[in-house]
Each structure stands twice: as C-alpha cells, then as structure tokens.
Specification:
alpha+beta, 26 helices, 26 strands, about 15% strand
Length: about 800
C-alpha cells in the first residue's frame, strides 16, 4: 500500500512538472529562509548553555546613580577578585577576567636564540589574566600541563591549542611547555595547553596569563588592584554560587562589603549579580570584546521566518487545489474501487510529505550558500556545520512534519471529499468558480500579499529613516576627516607627528585630542554651576583637544571665542544645551560664568552650536570642551580633486607615523564612515527586510500564479463562449485580472494600518525621525499592484488568445 502511494505521488509530480516545480520552489524558498533564520536564532540562544551548573554562574556588574545620572557597566572594581573569597560566604568560585592592556591588543615576541631574530605577532587579541577557577568553570580539556598548578604561579601562561600551533608550529603540546612568550614587555612561561572551546560562548579568551602575575608585577597599579571607588572597562568578574545559596543573599553581602571598603561613593553604586544566561543578550552591561545579541531582533527574525514558511505553505495549498479538477477522476475511480476517505487523506498527506522532504533536502544544500551570501547578517563563528547539533536536527525533523501537515491537510480534506458519481460524470467543476474552496484560496492569496505589502512598507520606511540619519546635519562637518590613535604617554612624539602631518600638502588642518564630536564611545564628567540660589549638575559629556579641534570639524561658536593655546586647563567651552540646563536663555549670558570642575573654578569663554555627540537616536545633551592634548589625531584632508590625492596623503601620513612609532600599526578611520556605523543595526535590519520583502513577493507571486491557473482552467468554457460572441483579447484579459487586483487592493488596505503602527513603534527609538507620509503607502500599494499585474497578466493574455474551439469541444 505504501509503495503504491509512493509510486502514485511520483507519477503525479512528474505528470504536472510545471505546477510541481512551482510548488517545490515556493516551499524551498520558505524552508530555506526558515532554516537559515532558525540556525541564527538557535546559535544565539546556545551561548554558554554547555557550561556545567550554568544556573549558578553570575557576573558582577555595576548600576550607578550619580546626581540623577544612571549608568551601567559590565565591569567591576578590581579588588573584588581578592576580597570575595575571603569576606563572602556562599561563593564556590571567583573568576576574574581582565583583558590584557585594556582594550589594546598585544605584541607577542618569541626569542629563539641570540643569533635568530625574534618572531613577532602583532595585534594579538583575546589575551586575558585569570585564575585556575576559569578553567574549572568552563570545563576545559587539558592537553598538556598540570590542570591545578598550570596557572597558579606568577609569570605563567596557558594557551589554547590554536594559539600554541600559531606560536610553535613545529612543537608538540608537551614540547611547548616551558617555552617563553613576551607580551609587550611582560615575559611569561607556557605552563599548560587546553583544547579550544568549540561551542558558542561569551568567554572568548585564547591566551591566559596567571592572575597572580598582576600582583607580582608593576601591573598591579595599572589594573588598580587597590582602588575600590573606580573600575576599568576591561575588568570583569564572574562567580559561581555554592549549592543552596541564592543570588539575592550573596548580592546583599556583596554590597555591604563594597560599601565598607568604598566609603567615598559606595552608596551611589549597586553591585548586581547578572545571570549567565542574560550576559549575551543584555545591552546595558556590554564589555570590551563581547558581542551582544538583541532578543527583540531574534524574535523579529523568528516571526519573519514563520511568515515566510507560512507563505510557502499557502502557496502549496493554492497550487494543489488549483489542479484539483485534474485529479477528480482519479479520486472517483479510487473511491469506486473501495478506497476510504481516510486512505485518500493519507495518500495526499504522503504526497505532501514527500514534496516537503524533497524541498527540505534542496534547502539544506542551499544553506551554506545562503550563509555566505548573508555573512554580513550572520553572527561570527556560525557556519553550516552547526546544523549537526542534536537539538537542531530534532527541530529539522519537526519542521518537515509540521510543514507537511500544514501544507497538505486542507488539500487532502478537500480532494478526499469529492463524490465519485459527480467526478466520473465530469461535473466536478460545475459551480466551483465561486465555491467555498475558491473563497478560501482568495483569502489565502490576500494573506500572502498582506505579508508582502507589510514588508514593502517596512523596507521603504526603514530605508528612508537610515537615509535621513546619514544625511542629517550633525552640527559639525564629518566629511574628509580621518582619525587615528597613537600610543599614550608620548606627548613629545605626538607633537612632532602633528607638525609633520600639518606640513603635508594634502592636509588642510590637523589636531590632537580625544574622541571625535560624535564617536562610538561616550565619556561623561561631573561639573557643577551654583548661581547662589541653586546648584545645577547636568549630565555632561566631555571632549577635549587643542585649539584646532573645532576648526577641523568646523564646529561653530554662537558666542564668545575658542580656547587659547596653553598647557593647562584655564577655560572651557560648552554647548547651547548646557547653557539652557544651567538656567540661561541666551548663550551670551553664560560667558564668564565659573564652573566647579575637578575642584577648580574654571570660566566659560565660548558657547558652541549644538552638535550630536551620538547618533540621532538620542537627543542632544549638555557637552563640555576643554583645551588638552590627547592621543587621538584628527586630520582634515583637502578636497580630493583627482581621485588620487587622498590616497597619496594617507600614504604620506602612514610613513610619518611609522617613522615616529615604528612598533605600532597605523589604523585610520574616516569619521563619516564611523558615523554611518551608528546605524549598522538599522542597515542590517533594512537588508534583512529587503530580502524578506523579495522572498515574500516571490512566494506570493507563485501563489497568485497558481490561483490564476485555477481560474483560467475553471472558466475556460466561459472564455471560449465570450470569444465566440466577439469579446476582445484586452477585454478578456481585463476580466480575468480585475478580480486579482481587487485581492491585492484588499491586502494593501489590511497591511497599511498594521505597518503604520509597527513602524511608528520602531521610529520611537529615534529622537530625530522622519514622518510616515501618505506617499509611502501609495508607492508600496502601486508596487504591489504592478507586481500582481505582471504575474497575472501573461497568464490572462495567454488564456485570452487561446483558440476557443479547444475549450468548447466536448471531451
């Protein structure tokens, strides 16, 4: 019986090659999209799930409130790492994770004898300081070295296998033990080798210097191991609770201990235990080197995948029922020979399951290709091999069953309901032009185009907002300006480099300072103005630079003057918003006012025109500028007239940099490109929406083509009679197309208010945003109708030009 069903299914697919191909294509598109999106979602939600006792692992993070300003940090004060094991109960393991040299990467040197030049590896990242608890927490496999003693002593390092092969390609893991590495100026001995973690994790270390090295070296001051009222962005602290102890109890102990040690600002800071499962998804506590995935984005992707999969199922239903009349006699014969309705339903569901399985296999072959095409949207570390995970394979099997059932259930019920007598007398199509099945197909087609219309509108609005954001007036000139960093504590060399760069013919102006006016980072300062009646302490961002900084970025002054050259901070500039927040209505009123800043009274000598210090998602806030030399260079290039001048100038700057800082790599960035990175998330969203729009339109068009085929088949005799009675080709094409245009118009009406509501919600993230206007809905609606007309038109014209004799002659 089963083999008979299988043979019948194959014959049916082969007999209707065109419809089968359309059905397979629609299902493959939906399933491919679902497979790739589900792979991304599954990967993101797999982070750190492999860790033993993961529910007892927490990260110590900071929630601060200084004068109404709320701040959050994924870092923790360094002394906590040594104090927690001694002063707290209920903590099984304490795991410090300090990034090497802060956010900078290391220069690794390997000495191989006096006669051989040392081998160097520049910009080595993922180098951390930690202790033995780190390896126990993550359940590392040791390849070489004593697990418990490998990282307990100062000046020792444990390497992963990949780094050991990189540094010592000809040595075995055992032979690597005892060899020396120098990180910048810190020489350590390899004491252990562990296997690389091959599962998604927030712990990204590859080289592990013993935490005891910090205490035994000058690094103790650099890492502020005795500073309780300050912390570094590159220090993290993890703890694992003992069984039976709650996070609330340990957190209360932690804050009491902290306030005891930090009597200066401890009352303004709350130490919080962040669960391990929250680390990969919480944007409030981002850390250097860490990547955060937004759950809202992942949920949006899941909804998109569900929609595309549903569209594929709807497309299958439309195409299957469209060819129902061709299978009517087969059903009649089977019922006459004794087939029950249940057997017919099993047969049709089996055919659907077969087609779904073929579509899934085809989709699996497409997944690696799609992942490469969508590399910009996929998380780093994800590839097609991740589909071999047991959980994902289970999801894949469930997907085939669910899609097969959803796609085949309705057609199976409809086809098995036909009466043998009617089908064998060729009456199956009588009256079906306006039947309940036709209504269902029309509803499904409207649903398809509603989804497609939503994606069209969403893509259009997101694209408009991104374009507005990129072209918005930031309050400064970001074009033709580059920025690059230089080593800290090298003031004299920086000034030499500055003069060299300024003398280059392709450079208009150069400056040293801090961050660009709008930058990826943020820095706040505490400043107070007391007018004798009230004290104002606005939440203030800070920038600094030399006297050319404002001119490099062409920041306008609305009152007063620029800072004067000098070596000490004697005067300040503020922006218009700062002036308003300390109680003045006009910029001129703030000139000469003394601010309490860093314990000194410093006057305001100029007021800058407001500019965006962040993306235009956030409103412009108070900002202060001081005269100070910094390690970041800001260079305005002269106009690029011949297409080569910038390239030549950048080459000259690179050479000048290499002469003064030969050990450092020169990495520059155009400021306008950096600003564009503010909207990387939105650009990724627009790209994904564009693909979702294209796929949904493609699937919808396949469904519409199926409904057109069905209508043409059921109205073939009517079309023939109309042609015999003198109807024109244009008239018949219009007749057949009108009904479908009505369906698309209904979809436009349904999708428009939904898209308006959803996109208004999305735009609330932007302090400066576009308005959703009527023309956007008109453009999206016209686009949908044009697409529908192109899909339906050729089939309608084909039916209209057909010979009426073929449709009117008796079978």
């Amino acid at each position: 019986m089963i083999s008979n069903y299988f043979k019948t299914a194959l014959r049916q697919l082969w007999r209707n090659k065109f419809i089968s191909l359309l059905t397979l294509l629609g299902l493959s598109i939906g399933i491919s999209s679902a497979l790739v999106i589900s792979l991304i979602v599954y990967y993101e939600f797999s982070f750190d799930t492999f860790l033993p006792n993961k529910e007892r692992i927490y990260r110590v993070v900071i929630d601060a409130n200084f004068g109404g300003f709320e701040g959050h940090s994924g870092s923790a004060p360094a002394p906590l790492a040594n104090a927690i094991p001694i002063e707290l109960t209920g903590v099984e393991q304490t795991v410090p994770v300090f990034q090497f040299q802060g956010d900078a990467s290391a220069l690794v040197r390997i000495e191989e004898g006096q006669s051989t030049k040392p081998r160097e590896f520049k910009k080595q990242s993922q180098v951390i300081f930690t202790n033995i608890d780190y390896f126990q927490l993550l359940d590392y496999d040791w390849v070489a070295g004593e697990g418990s003693g490998a990282i307990g002593q100062p000046y020792t390092v444990v390497l992963t296998e990949s780094r050991a092969r990189l540094y010592f390609p000809t040595s075995s893991p055992i032979e690597t033990i005892g060899k020396q590495l120098t990180y910048n100026d810190l020489t350590v001995t390899v004491s252990g080798i562990v296997r690389d973690l091959d599962r998604p994790t927030s712990f990204t270390g590859k080289e592990f210097i013993s935490f005891a090295t910090i205490e035994a070296s000058p690094l103790k001051d650099q890492f502020m191991m005795t500073e309780w009222n300050d912390w570094m962005a590159y220090s993290q602290l993890f703890i694992k609770l003992e069984t039976g102890h709650t996070a609330a109890n340990v957190q209360a102990q932690l804050n009491r201990m902290y306030q005891t040690h930090n009597t200066e600002s401890g009352s303004d800071i709350t130490l919080t235990l962040q669960p391990l499962h929250d680390i990969h998804f919480n944007t409030k506590y981002q850390s250097i080197g860490g990547r955060v995935a937004e759950k809202s984005t992942l949920y949006g992707l899941m909804i998109t995948a569900a929609f595309l999969l549903l569209l594929g199922c709807i497309n299958f239903i439309n195409l299957t029922t469209a060819q129902a009349s061709q299978r009517a006699k087969e059903i009649g014969v089977r019922k006459t020979l004794g087939s029950s309705r249940r057997q017919l339903i099993r047969q049709f569901l089996g055919e659907t399951l077969l087609l779904t399985s073929v579509a899934t296999l085809f989709s699996l072959l497409l997944v690696p290709i799609i992942l490469r095409l969508f590399a910009v949207y996929t998380p780093p570390g994800l590839d097609a091999s991740f589909m071999g995970q047991a959980g994902y394979l289970a999801w894949l099997a469930l997907l085939i069953l669910v899609v097969g059932f959803l796609s085949g259930c309705y057609p199976a019920v409809v086809l098995s309901r036909y009466r043998p007598a009617a089908t064998l007398r060729n009456q199956i199509s009588a009256g079906t032009g306006r039947s309940r099945q036709t209504t269902v197909r029309q509803v499904l087609t409207v649903s398809q185009f509603t989804v497609a219309q939503f994606f069209i509108l969403a893509t259009l609005i997101v694209t408009q907002q991104i374009d507005y954001s990129l072209k918005a007036d930031m309050g400064f000139d970001k074009d033709a300006v580059i920025k690059f960093d230089s080593p800290r504590d090298a003031a004299q060399k920086q000034q030499t480099l500055l003069h060299t760069i300024q003398s280059l013919p392709g450079v208009e102006l150069a400056s040293t300072g801090f961050l660009a006016p709008a930058d990826q980072g943020m820095s706040f300062t505490s400043v107070t103005y007391n007018n004798g009646k009230a004290a104002f302490q606005p939440q203030t961002q800070i920038r600094w630079g030399d006297e050319n900084y404002l001119d490099v970025y062409r920041i306008e002054l609305v009152a007063g003057r620029n800072v004067l050259p000098g070596d000490s901070v004697k005067e300040l500039l503020v922006n218009e918003q700062f002036v308003k927040e300390i109680g003045f209505q006009q910029p001129e009123e703030a000139l000469g006012v003394a601010l309490d800043w860093n314990g000194r009274a410093v006057p305001i000598v100029g007021v800058m025109k407001d500019f965006h210090a962040r993306s235009i998602r956030a409103p412009i806030g108070p900002l202060l500028f001081e005269k100070n030399q910094g390690s970041i260079f800001h260079v305005r290039l002269k106009p690029n007239r011949d297409g080569q001048s910038w390239s030549e100038t950048l080459t000259q700057i690179r050479k000048a940099y290499a002469q003064i800082f030969p050990e450092e790599a020169f990495n520059y960035q155009f400021v306008d490109e950096m600003v564009a990175q503010f909207y990387k998330r939105e650009q990724a969203t627009a790209g994904l929406l564009g693909w979702a729009m294209s796929l949904s339109i493609g699937i919808s068009c396949l469904g519409l083509l199926g409904l057109t085929t069905y209508t043409v088949n059921t109205r073939a005799k009517e079309i023939g009679i109309r042609k015999v009675l003198g109807a024109s080709v244009a008239g018949i094409a219009k007749l057949l197309s009108t009904d479908f245009i009505k369906l698309v118009l209904i979809a436009v009406v349904i999708a428009s208010p939904i898209a308006w509501w959803a996109m208004n919600r999305w735009l609330t993230d932007f302090a400066y945003r576009i308005d959703i206007e009527w023309w956007m809905f008109a453009v999206a609606g016209i686009a949908a109708m044009v697409i529908a007309l192109l899909t339906v038109g050729w089939q309608a014209v084909r039916a209209a030009v057909a010979n009426p004799v073929d449709s009117l002659r008796d079978e």
